[in-house]
Amino acid sequence: MQFTDKSAQEPFTIKHSQSSKYNMQKRTNPSHQVLNSELPLHHQIYLHLRSEIENGDWIGRLGFPGEKDLAEQFGVSVITSRKALNRLASDGFIERTRGKRAIVIHRPHLRSNTIAPPIIQVSVGAPRLFKYQILSCGVHQAPTEACEAFNVDAGSELWQCSRLRLYQGKPHSVTLNAQRTELGQTLPMEKLQKLPMTQILRETGVEFSQLRRRLSVALAPPHAAQHLGLTLQDPTLVYSFIHTDPNDVVVQWVRIWVRQDALTPEEIFNYETGTWSMSAAM
Fold first, then answer.
1. How many angstroms separate the CA atoms of 240 and 233, rounded?
2. Domain termination site, one of 71, 104, 137
3. Rounded to 10 degrees, what is the CA torsion of 240, 243, 244, 245?
4. What is each CA distance from 106 to 3, 40, 139, 268, in whole angstroms?
5. Residues 268 and 139 occupy one common structural domain
6. Listed residues 104, 130, 161: the one ending a domain
7. DSSP per residue over 62-108, as a string?
8. pTM for this structure?
9. In angstroms, rounded to a whole number, what is the distance separating the alpha carbons of residues 191 and 38?
10. Is residue 138 a contact partner of residue 15, using CB atoms and an 8 Å limit?
11. CA-based nearest residue to 184, from 112, 256, 134
């Protein structure tokens, strides 16, 4: 799988065991397409790399991009990429040594696995009719938050599938599903092209018991921004989900980047019952 943002969410190539059709080669989609020409380019690249570091995406990983790598990835001059790296170094995120790749020295404060007190009950409406386009699929180094969810070491490999979701013919969101390799590699490609992931998993016999959700606002990584028609400066709604089975075993971790102008379901809180309801599923 190839993301053009962290090398995940980058550039990284994920090995795809189901179909080589979805193996995206390095920099197939140039990340410079998501830069805003009206803003300093080095600042946008700096923000992107800083976000990756603060999200823990470089924990347990080597090969932090150099000046030439970033220049090629974003279609900028080496001078521009050098400015971005120099600022990361001066701000204490990386350490640069002449003739060597930069080393990430900033250790992010990762979220605790402690979950906030649950809402008493949530009722969710019918799922929306999305159309799907597979962006990448296979086994590779997983985001740190996904590794935490599965209780594996940072930098571990998980099966991952990234898809563009279209709603009423327009780009709505980009999803990234992470699952244990032994489960993900059994999922049929033809179903990944057209069905919601939870439906696919249920059809394979997986049972769901609980879903934990966090909502935040963040800049989209290049691979998501490009397919959503955004720049690196455009904020997105970010949903993070953890699905567990009846034995409280994690089945999958999900991250969804949603366009800020996309239609989102209405959520209603009932003071009498202390419950939330949602007009449609995310």
1. 21
2. 104
3. 180
4. 23, 24, 27, 40
5. yes
6. 104
7. -----HHHHHHHHT--HHHHHHHHHHHHHTTSEE--TTS--EE----
8. 0.74
9. 41
10. yes
11. 134
Dihedral of alpha carbons 223, 226, 232, 234, sign: negative
How many domains, the chain? Answer: 2
Residues 6+ apart with CB under 8 A from 21: none
The answer on 268 and 132 residing in a single domain is yes
Q: Are residues 72 and 206 in the same domain?
A: no
Q: Supply the range of the domain harboring residue 30.
A: 2-104
Whole-angstrom Cα distance, residue 197 to residue 213?
16
Element (H, E) at 112: none
Mean pLDDT, consecutive 10-residue segments, the chain of 282 residues? 37 38 41 82 93 83 92 94 96 92 83 49 61 95 91 91 95 97 96 95 94 89 92 91 95 95 76 71 58
Residue type, 129: L
